[in-house]
Write a structure and sequence with these properties.
It is a multi-pass membrane protein. Pfam families: MtN3_slv (PF03083). Mediates sugar transport across membranes. It is found in: Cell membrane; Golgi apparatus membrane. With about 220 residues, the protein is mostly helical. It contains nine helices and no strands. It is globular and about 55 Å long.
């Protein structure tokens, strides 16, 4: 009973923090609308968000897990909305259409597979493995900035609030996966939490602004 109560609390925290993380896309889209262009930005984060949330949604439906279904239904809805906004304001419409077409084709294939697979355990394992892989790609993507941080010895390019939020999201889902004994949730989120801690530790090592931009202080008495 006690473990079930903890599981419910952890699940609720995971859902709330994940939704808040999804909502951060509103700020990005608001900037696109304000500028009337997406400039050189890539639609990939939104397309990948649709894909990842969609696969996790299928996983949640197959597992009959209400928490996973709810959070990823919201995720798919928001990511599709962000993609539409991106498409409206981008000059790379053909590229966006190609990525959308690929995503739709993949979902058609997945829906077809889900409808014909009779072994629920096999289906759950394959969906879980695919969802786990997509999550790992997503959480590892920001690590590409680490070399630049070490080069300039400055964390100006790292978004502290988003990294902190990513840590909480990963930590809560890791705990939930641990209690639920679900390795497909536990593995990617344990790695996500560790990567977030590594990035957060850089803020304690390097300044948030380059040394050259700091006010000059004369050493002459």
């Amino acid at each position: 009973m006690y473990l079930f109560e903890i599981k419910e609390h952890v699940a609720n925290l995971a859902v709330v923090t994940t939704i808040l993380q999804f909502l951060s896309g509103i700020l990005v889209c608001k900037q696109y609308v304000y500028n009337r262009t997406t400039a050189e930005a890539s639609p990939f984060p939104f397309i990948a968000g649709v894909l990842s949330s969609g696969i996790w949604l299928l996983y949640g439906l197959t597992k009959h897990n209400d928490k996973i279904v709810m959070v990823n239904t919201i995720g798919v809805t928001l990511m599709v909305s962000y993609t539409v906004v991106f498409y409206i304001y981008t000059f790379k419409k053909l590229m966006v259409l190609r990525q959308i077409a690929f995503t739709v084709a993949l979902f058609i294939f997945m829906f077809g597979y889900v409808s014909v697979e009779e072994d629920n355990e096999v289906l759950l394992s394959r969906l879980g493995l695919l969802a786990c892989s997509l999550t790992l790609i997503t959480v590892a993507a920001p690590m590409s900035k680490l070399l630049y941080v070490f080069k300039v010895k400055c964390t100006e390019c790292l978004p502290f609030p988003m990294i902190l939020m990513s840590f909480f999201v990963s930590a809560f889902w890791f705990l939930y996966g641990l209690i639920d004994e679900d390795i497909f949730i536990t593995i990617p989120n344990s790695i996500g939490a560790i990567l977030a801690v590594i990035q957060l530790s850089l803020f304690a090592i390097f300044p948030s602004t380059p040394h050259s931009s700091l006010p000059y202080k004369s050493t002459i008495a």
